[in-house]
Each structure stands twice: as structure tokens, then as C-alpha cells.
Amino acid sequence: MANPEHLSVLRQGVEAWNEWRPKNPSIIPDLKSADLSEADLSLVDLIEADLSGANLRSANLIHADLIHADLSRADLSKANLNVADLSGANLREAKLSEAKLSGADLIEADLIEGDLSGADLSGADLSGANLRSANLSGANLSGADLRSANLSGADVGRMVLSRAHLFATVLANTDLGEVKGLESIIHRGPSTIGIDTFFRSRGKIPEAFLRGAGVPDIFIQYAASLVGVPFEFYSCFISYSSKDEALAERLHADLQGKGVRCWFAPHDLKTGDRFRIKIDEAVRLYDKLLLLLSKNSLGSDWVEKEVETAFEKERRQKQTVLFPVRLDGSVMKTESGWPADIRRTRHIGDFTHWKRHDAYKEAFNRLLWDLKADKAPAPTSAKVS
Q1: CATH architecture of 236-370
Q2: May I ask the CATH class of domain 111-229?
Q3: So where are the chain's domains?
Q4: Please, is 252 exposed, middle or buried when counting C-beta atoms within 10 Å of its C-beta (0-12, 13-18, 19+)?
Q5: How many CB atoms lie under 10 A from the CB of residue 173?
Q6: 3-state percent breakdown (helix, strand, coil) of the chain, nearest 5
Q7: CA angle 115, 118, 121 (to 5 degrees)
Q8: What pLDDT is recorded for position 220?
Q9: What is the pLDDT of residues 279-318, one digit of tens each?
Q10: Are 111-229 and 236-370 equal in CATH topology?
Q11: pTM above 0.90?
């Protein structure tokens, strides 16, 4: 129970209380289980106060100073805590449903298993806060600072995170499937997105969010298959001569736009990567090799090596890997080597008139149809010269 003297002073009003505090610097206010519902405590000094189990429902705590206060299991439902300082406060199992916490300072606050459902935390500073297993369903955290915050196991259904700041934020065992504003998150650095989070979210996490959080591209590209969402298209690696880059870039963009996972070397390889090794890895990794045949590529040593890698993959997997398309008539005239083998044994898509819109559209739609898959991955592109 609360200390009667302390409670008596507080009931005299904030001004009397704030005058009493400096005169009793060694006293830790004991307000355990006090009934302060609907009390006007704006600007009150409750630093390190013991308010555990207190009833502060609908109380006015605007600009209140609650640094390191013990509010564990306190009822702060519908309380107004806008711009309050709760840094380092103990809010374990506290009830904060529909509370107003806009602009509040909750740095390193302990909110484990707290109920913040429907709370307004817009612009709040929750950096380093522990929100493990907290209920944040329907809460508004737009513009909030969640750097180094721990949201493991939190209920974040219908939570709003528009323009929130993340860095080293822990989102483990959390269902992000219904969180709003993930695309607009401001990532100050990588965060932790658990595999369990991806499964619980049924894969419904925007790629932009995952990439911003530092999730590797290879995981993002194949993640949907991990949760039983089949890919509509096979993935592919585009092999071409650097002199045919204009068409390669157009195909890459259009295939990506149709949901085909493509790899495009000039855009995706990091400076300093060993280019030859990376391309060999890509040919092996993706399902199909989309080969752009022209007088330029027929003379390219790199294209020849990629074709050899594709043939090897076909022999090993006993399925078609090579998807050739021609940009001119060169391959139809060759009589020797790998180009002749392709001409004799493969259907070759016709992109000879790709600069004409109707001809390109027709050839592209045929290619898209050929890349359809029942349960396989999707396309990519890469530069060779």
C-alpha cells in the first residue's frame, strides 16, 4: 500500500508535491497501489517513484517526469503521457491500452508483457526499450525511434510503423503480416529479422523492408518458397555481350516487373568481386540461363563459358536450363561449335525486331510463358563481354 504521507502530499496538487520533493531528496516516493485515476499530474516530478500496481487510468501525466519510476503492473489505460519522460522506467505488465504517449521518452524502458494495444506512440523514443511479448496490436508507432529495441514475441497486429526508425532492432518470433507502413521504415542500419518472424508472417513482408533491414538478397529471392508460396516463374540469369546491354537491361526490368527473379551483373555485383566466379555461381544458382544470341555474343569467350556451365547443369539435373533468344540472324548461319548445337537442338526465341514495340511485346510474352513454372523459382540478368 502507498505511504499515507506521500499520498496526502500528492493529493494537494502537483505544485505542492514538486515543492516537497527537493526538500526530501533522500525519500523515494512510495505510491504503491495508489488510486490516482483521472488525477491531474501534468509536470509532476515522480523520478524513481514506486507506483507499482497504481491506478492511473485516464490520468493527465503530460510532461511528467517518471525517469526510472516503478510502474510495473500499473494501470495507465487511456492516460495522457504525451511528452512524458519514462526513460529507464519499469513498465512490466503495465496496462497502457489506448494511452497517449506521443513524443514520450521511453529510452531503455522495460515494457515486457505490457499492454500497449491501441496506444499512440507516434514520435516516441523507444530506443533500447524492451518490448518483449508486449501487446502492440493497433498501436501507432509512426515516426517512433525503435533503434536497439527488442520486440521479440510482441503482438504487432495492425500496428502502424510508418516512417519509424530502426537499427539493431530485434524482430524475432513476430508476425509482421498486418503491420502497416513497413515500406516507409527508415533503416539506420541492419536489424534482426528472425526466421520465425518470416514464417509467422506467412512471407507477407515487403522486400524493401527486408532489404533495408539487411536481409541478404539470396534469402529474399527464395523466401516465398520457404513458406509454401509457389513461384509462378522460374528464376533466370541473363547472359549477353556487353554490346547488347540495352536489350538485356530492358528484359531485366520487364521480367522483374512481372515477378520474375532476375540477376543483373552490372547492378548486383559488388566492386572487387571476382566477376568470373560470381557469374559461374549465378548460372548454377538460378533455374534457367537466358542467352541473348547475336554476332556480338557468338564471339564472346564469357558467353561460351556460361553456355558450357548451363549444358553441364542440364546433364546433371536432366532438365532444360538454356533458354536462347536471338537478336539477329547470326546463329542461324553458323555451322560449328556451341552455337550450331543450340541452333540444331533448341527452340530459339525471336527478338530480332525488339526495337519495335509490337514485335518486342509478342516475343516477350512468349518468353514469359516459357518461364512459367508450377513450383519453381523466377528470373535474373548479368553482363558478359
Answers
A1: 3-Layer(aba) Sandwich (3.40)
A2: mainly beta
A3: 1-102, 111-229, 236-370
A4: buried
A5: 17
A6: 30, 15, 55
A7: 90
A8: 81
A9: 555 555 678 889 999 998 888 777 887 788 888 888 877 8
A10: no
A11: no
